[in-house]
Structures are given as C-alpha cells and as structure tokens.
Design goal:
The chain is of the alpha+beta class. The chain has helices at 11-21, 29-38, 87-101, 118-126, and strands at residues 2-5, 44-51, 54-63, 70-78, 106-112, 130-140, 143-151.
Amino acid sequence: MKIRPSVSNDIPSLQHVAERTGLFPSDLLPDMINGFLSDGDENSLWLTCEEDSRITGFCYAMEETFTDGTWNMLALAVLPDRQGNGIGRAIVTTLERLLRDKHNRVLIVDTSGTESFAGTRSFYERCGYAEEARIRDFWGPGDDKIVFWKAL
C-alpha cells in the first residue's frame, strides 16, 4: 500500500472511488482538487492510496480559515470492496503525520448522526477521535452534524 499526494492523473480513479462510495457527486471532484494541483495550495491536502497500481482510496483536508493550525478532513473514501482492510486508517494516519510534521495542532471531521453513519462514527472513534459537538438537524431534518476532534 502506498499513500502519496494526489496528482492530476489520479482524477479519473478518484472520481471512480467517489462514485462507488457515494461520498459526493464525482463530477465535483476536478474543481475541488484543482487548487491543490495547479496552485500548490498549501491550505489543502489530497492524498491517494494505491495498492498494486490500483487507486483504492483518498482523503481531502483543508486548513480552517482564521485558526492556528486547525484542519478539517472533508472527505475520506475507500472502495467498498477494500473497506475493512486498514486502508482508511492508514490514510488518516498519514494525513495526521503530515499535518503534525508541519506543526498543526488539531484535525476535525464532520459526519452525519444518522444510523447509516454509525459505522463511520465508530471508525473515527477507533482512530482516536472524540465526539466534540453535535448540531441538530444540520444536514436535514433528523440528520445531525457530528464533529469529531483529535489533537495532533
């Protein structure tokens, strides 16, 4: 398994991962990653996971504006047939290390409070994140926003 900064040639495979996981509409991805790829945007970070030359996952994190070293992991996706094999944890661990090496302090993650996201919340707890906040009905009626927090 190799986890590295994303490059422009990854875009079709990253879109495939986004489609397969239903994380977000894949046609949004090129615009989302453009600043990171073309401008060398140091306020965002995209990581790609490869296994045997096949892209199996990615994450996207962004520095929170007006903070001192706080980042938000906005996306984490692993192909469904590769979930449960340590890929997500390896991506998160790599992201945390890269952020820590640049003297950042905090990483947060927002997710849904619905039952269908129970596994996602459990994953973040196993990775050492604590539920820090709950905003009721944020995503929609009955769909709370759960904010997880971890010190780097």
